[in-house]
Design brief:
This protein has 213 residues and is α/β, with parallel strands linked by helices. It has a single domain, classed as Vaccinia Virus protein VP39 (Rossmann fold), CATH 3.40.50. Helix content is 35%, strand content 26%. It has six helices and seven strands. A seven-stranded mixed sheet has the order 3-2-1-4-5-7-6, with helices on both faces. Helix 4 crosses helix 6. The longest helix has 17 residues. The radius of gyration is 16 Å and the shape is globular. Bound molecules: S-adenosylmethionine. S-adenosylmethionine (SAM) binds next to loops.
C-alpha cells in the first residue's frame, strides 16, 4: 500500500463520513452472535457493536487500517474495565473475496460502504453468502449508482477520476442487484439520498438481506 492509501485516505474517509454516525449506530446495533464485518477499514463501526454481538471478526486488506482498527479495539477493551473480553474481536488482513471462515459459521454479516470498492464485488457477495448461517442476516449500508438521470450520468463520467482518488471506490455500482445475484433475499431495503453525504455518492441502499434458511 502507498503513503496515500495508508495515511491520507483513512483521514479523508473520516472527514467525508463524519456525518453518518447515526446511520452507523442504527445499522450495527442489531448485529448479534458471531459477526463478520468485511472491509472494516479503520474500525469506525466498532464502537456501535452491543453485547449481543458476542464475536466480531473484521477483515480488511489494508494493514495500516487494521492497525488503526486494532487501536480502537484496545481502547474499547480498556474503557470497559474488564467487561469486554479481548477474544471478542479478531481483526485480520485479507480481502472479502476469499474469506478464511467456514461455511455457515456467521450469524450476522456487515457490509458498510465497502462493495463500492472491493475489486471482485460479486465474488465477495458470494463469500458472505457462503459463510452466513441459513437464516443469517447481512446488514448493509452502501452507496450506489443513482437512478437513471443526470446524477447517474455524472457518476459515470467522474468514475475514472474518482477511482484512483478514493482507493478503488466506484460511484456507479448496482449493489442491490449484486446481492440478489449472490442468493440473498431482502427482508428490508431502503433506497434514498443520504443528506449527510457528498452529493456525488449520496445515493444509498440500507437494510437487511437474508440467506434463505
Ligand atoms: C470506503 S472504505 C469503508 C471502510 C469502512 N467499512 C467504513 O465504514 O468506514 C472502503 C473499504 O474497503 C476496503 N477494501 C478494499 N478492497 C477490499 C476487499 N477486496 N475486501 C474487503 N475490503 C476491501 C478498503 O481498504 C476500505 O477500508
Amino acid at each position: 500500500m502507498s503513503f496515500y492509501e495508508d495515511r491520507i485516505f483513512p483521514v479523508a474517509l473520516d472527514i467525508a463520513l463524519a456525518g453518518i454516525a447515526d446511520t452507523r449506530r442504527e445499522l450495527i446495533q442489531s448485529a448479534q452472535g458471531r459477526v463478520l464485518e468485511v472491509g472494516i477499514g479503520n474500525g469506525a463501526n466498532l464502537r456501535y457493536y452491543t453485547d449481543r454481538a458476542t464475536e466480531v471478526v473484521g477483515v480488511e486488506p489494508c494493514a495500516a487500517m487494521v492497525d488503526m482498527a486494532q487501536k480502537k479495539v484496545d481502547k474499547l477493551i480498556a474503557d470497559s474495565e474488564g467487561k469486554i473480553s479481548r477474544d471478542k474481536y479478531q481483526l485480520k488482513v485479507g480481502g472479502g473475496e476469499n474469506l478464511d471462515l467456514e461455511d455457515n459459521s456467521v450469524d450476522t454479516a456487515v457490509a458498510c460502504l465497502v462493495f463500492c470498492t472491493i475489486p471482485d464485488a460479486e465474488g465477495a457477495a458470494k463469500e458472505m453468502f457462503r459463510v452466513l448461517k441459513p437464516g443469517g442476516k447481512m446488514l448493509f449500508f452502501e452507496h450506489v449508482h443513482a437512478a437513471p438521470g443526470i446524477k447517474a450520468r455524472v457518476q459515470n463520467l467522474l468514475n475514472p477520476i474518482w477511482k484512483p482518488l478514493a482507493c478503488g471506490c466506484h460511484l456507479n455500482r448496482n449493489t442491490k442487484h449484486m446481492f440478489e445475484q449472490a442468493g440473498f433475499n431482502y427482508q428490508q431495503i431502503e433506497e434514498y439520498h443520504h443528506s449527510k453525504m457528498f452529493p456525488i455518492f449520496s445515493s444509498v441502499i440500507e437494510g437487511i438481506a437474508v440467506k434463505p434458511g
